[in-house]
Request: fold
Amino acid sequence: MKVKQLSVFLENKSGRLATVTKVLGDNLINIRALSIADTTDFGILRLIVDQPEKASRFLKENDFTVSETDVIAVQMSDKPGGLAAVLKVLEDIQINIEYMYAFVGRTDTDAVVVFRVEDIDRAVDLLQKAGVKLLCAESVYSF
Amino acid sequence: MWNPEMEMMSRSELEKIQSQRLKNTVERVYHNVPFYKKKFDEAGIKPEQIQSVKDLARLPFTTKQDLRDNYPFKLFAVPQDEVVRIHASSGTTGKMTVVGYTKHDINIWAEVMARTFGCGGVNHKDIIQVAYGYGLFTGGLGAHYGAEKLGATVVPISGGNTKRQLQIMADFGTTVLACTPSYALYMAESAAEEGIDLSDLKLRVGFFGAEPWSNNMRKEIEAKWNIKAFDIYGLSEIIGPGVASECMQQDGLHVCEDHFLVEVIDPNTGEVLPDGEKGELVFTCITKEALPLIRYRTRDISIITHEPCACGRTHARMHRVMGRTDDMLIIRGVNVFPSQIESVLLEIGETEPHYQLIVDREGNLDDLEIWVEVSERLFSDEVRKLEQLESYIRREIQSTLGISAKVKLVEPKTIARSEGKAKRIIDRRDVYRQS
Reply:
């Protein structure tokens, strides 16, 4: 139930994000979800793509610093209170969220949110027990 | 002039004194410092072969590495109980360069610093504000003792606290300022912000050193402060400030040749160069007791001349320092070697750190920015951890070097490499540009 996320170090200067997306596009890699955390000097681009190993390799070949992190993708109903319900579960089972971001694609009724949490194995276990729907890696990559 | 008898002595008379003093010093270090005995023996030199200053070039050089190898006191030529003062400066690999002084040495130091002030027309009636740092750094106490010897009124304020510096300057009627040139410019700028009119002050002259500066900076300081600005030169290994200073002609710095012999050598061959040729400055202490270094290689690049000076002083003049033979930087008066930064980066687990030091002068104060390429080892997908990394490097550099630096994480291959070797330093201050 863990999903591979790629993190890319980006300096805050124009054209860097464009270069990343071009490298991925040229290599026929599809971006499923992304978010950017930034400070005044640098940013961290977090990506979920359909072929993480390949994407990581291509980016490294283009001199980017890339790391791989396990995250979880939670499916929830796309209506008011959908996210709040999931966050309530996380709070109850006392799992801290390092960061989270929403998925690009979604179905008519459901939304998908990516969570990076402390102690991911425990989180997966407890969330599933609480009846929260987690997406497996394959379904996320081809969502 | 503080000591016309010595400062205007005929060259032949001076040479006689120098020769006698050199002979005594060589004799003394040979018998009192095992390092020199070994070094002279290895070079096949016996003290009695050194009869005059003309024999100087036969003696081996002393380097900063020798000081480091003999850390802390092993180069001292007197027992430690005769040493009354220790100073130290930061070294290339964390180990400091330690120097010592006997009472006699402190007197010599005061004498040469009194001459420095005298060179700029300062006398016992002046009020001298010493804004060089006091402490292990030689600047503050060196200027202090010289000013006292002169009989002037000393204000030992040390560096920093700019508002109070300006307040004191106005209230006490300071006539002489001694500090680093960049701090003088910074103070002038602060004064402008505070609405203080510098031309209302009684300040007349300033003695600036401890870091390289250009003639353009001199013009700027002189215009902003409405004073005459003198370049002074020194290094702790030789004595501290007072080794050489400009006179009213502002045309080269007179070396106190009755205490320090000066040579310019080819840094590659070690061969002594004639007057007018650019090379590395080498000094020999001929009157000091505790640490009389023989042919110490300064790594500073300059030119010397023995042409008579219009001021009447007969001592040789050196051109303001024109560069370095190594990669040492002087930032806010502090010696910085790229290797020190590298050792901090090695500590955080980087096996081959890629970094670059960017030195600039912003608002007249030196600004050090360190670019560090983020390798996979350093990288984290959490902003917080990367920010912690930045502040860790910043703190380590602050504690190792004693200066603050801005740390910027950059992408791999950002730092230009030529033949695989990264360019470590970009110095935008242009302090060695001569105009």
